[in-house]
Amino acid sequence: MPTDHPVSTITPALIEAEARQWLGHPWRHQGRGPTHVDCAGLVVMVAHALGLPYVDETGYGRRPLGDTLLRPLRAQLVELRNIGAARRGDVVALAEGGSAVSHMGILTLRHGRLYLVHALARRRMVVEDPWDGEWWEKSKFAFRWQHLAQQHLAQQDGEG
């Protein structure tokens, strides 16, 4: 259920908290809650719970081809030029077992370290893993919600 907060008040910490609400939920291909989600479904459910605009796209197979998972992200979020600039609340797109993006998750922050909340098929549930090693290496793109990207630009303009 969407919140009553204006989108402009949704912070990275709120996105992180909502993503963590899904920890332990079972994984199911193309799951869209409330009982099951896949990696794309997790992003959709977090967005919808917070009232963030996000149009779902379910036309993908178990092994997505081409840019199937990237299209909705690129159409609705702001792609970061440098994946290393990603921070909590951002969405990361990953390639598992090939060059095409086949997975995604939401970054969180714990003890000063970035983690990835994602619905992982091989563990059959939503988990939170450190965003380093395997997950960092598989990360291909990072995206920021429109309102957060605009706020970031406004802050940079104010500093200049």
TrEMBL record:
Cite the NlpC/P60 domain residue spans from the record. Answer: 9-147
Q: Name one GO molecular function term.
A: cysteine-type peptidase activity
A Pfam family it matches = NLPC_P60
Give the UniProt keywords, A-Z.
Hydrolase, Protease, Thiol protease
PROSITE patterns under this entry? Answer: NLPC_P60
One Gene Ontology term of the biological-process aspect is:
proteolysis
Q: Which family does it belong to?
A: Belongs to the peptidase C40 family.
What name does the UniProt record give this protein? NlpC/P60 family protein
- Source organism per entry reads Roseospirillum parvum
